[in-house]
Write a structure and sequence with these properties.
The chain is mostly helical and 95 residues long. It contains 3 helices and 2 strands, in the order H-H-H-E-E.
Length: 95
């Protein structure tokens, strides 16, 4: 997890600097808030927190689907190799 975090946060050109992705987010979010305030659309704390909750739920659902796909793929592969006979481990123990 630390490697993924470092990959996302630090620059791929210079590990001493922050990545362009983080810099872009750091300028994008305040710009959107400033624009919405400019056109008289106020973001209340409850609305902002609800949006964060929805985003978190979407991310969790995405990773749950990926996990389910990996599990299903592994199970199908295990069943297939057991039936065909190429599995290194059988139900009774090792070959």
């Amino acid at each position: 997890m630390i490697k993924i975090w470092n990959w996302l946060v630090y620059s791929s050109k210079n590990a001493e600097k922050y990545s362009l992705t983080i810099k872009g987010l750091a300028t994008f979010v305040p710009s959107v808030v400033a624009f919405l305030a400019l056109v008289n659309i106020n973001i209340e704390a409850n609305t902002f927190l609800a949006a964060i909750d929805i985003l978190a739920a979407v991310v969790v659902a995405f990773f749950a689907m990926i996990s389910a796909l990996y599990t299903l793929t592994g199970l199908i592969r295990k069943l297939y190799t057991t039936i065909v006979g190429n599995n290194a481990v059988i139900i009774a123990g090792r070959k």
